[in-house]
Amino acid sequence: MTILHLMAFSVIRWQQLMSSVIFLLIFLMALAGNLLIIMVSTFDHQLQKPMYFFLQHLAFLDLCYILVTVPKAIMDNLTKNSSISFWGCILQVFLVVSLACTEMSLLTVMSYDRYVAICFPLHYEVIMKRGTCIKMAVYSWLSGGMSGILHTATIFSLPLDVSRVVHQFFCEIPHLLRLSCTDDYLGEVGAVAITSSLSFACFFTIVLSYTHIFSTVRKMCSAMPQSKAFSTCVPHLVVVTLFLGSAAVAYLKPVEDKPSSFDLLVSMFYTVVPPTLNPIIYSLRNKDIKAAVQKYLNIISFSPLAC
Known about the structure:
mainly alpha, three-stranded mixed beta sheet, 3 strands, globular
């Protein structure tokens, strides 16, 4: 079986263990936050609205996203074995690209949902019908899957020197290109150009949606909706900018021949940070989600007493 070798976070044992502990804590936070949102939005009848439908999809996506890279990184550090099978690498590339592109599409759909809810409240239920929401979610997942297939097919159609180390903690396309035995990257360059164009189109749509939201809210007489809109939308924009900006740096900047801690950090910002922050930014700050969580926590805490 063909084996590829990933880069370890450190050759010093205590640093390997420390990074494992940090990754484990981040993983548990992301796991708990996203599972909580999925369960609450599934079983609470008061959260059966378009916004929570998309939040449920985002939470499930983030759960899958962090499962692709972080558990293996933890095990690699603990076992001091950073190898991955060739087919495992193919699967990891497909999943990372698919889930990242799906996330960008879902965040765009969610910003549009908020735009309709705030700017056209009387038409919200007509525009964001159940069928329309399902179609938007399906298109988001399909677009991500197609991007994953495109990138996976182009990168692994190149001859790769698998004896060299991938200078990343997972199979990332720019670092796999470094292993190529040919300089003919035209297929992958085209795939990156297509994905980048669509991602920046999504980012432009998100910014445009929030701009219209800010404009609409500013016209309201009360200061309460304004402060609520700003406190909600600004963190959303920060997370989206961080996600797209770090991914753009990772994929568009030239890859160095030597291992770089900067590359590790940048990759973490688009693979590890979003699944951890999204439950806090998009859901756990929401009063309906918090009320539902509190309700179920009360049921769990009082149920033994009832027995």
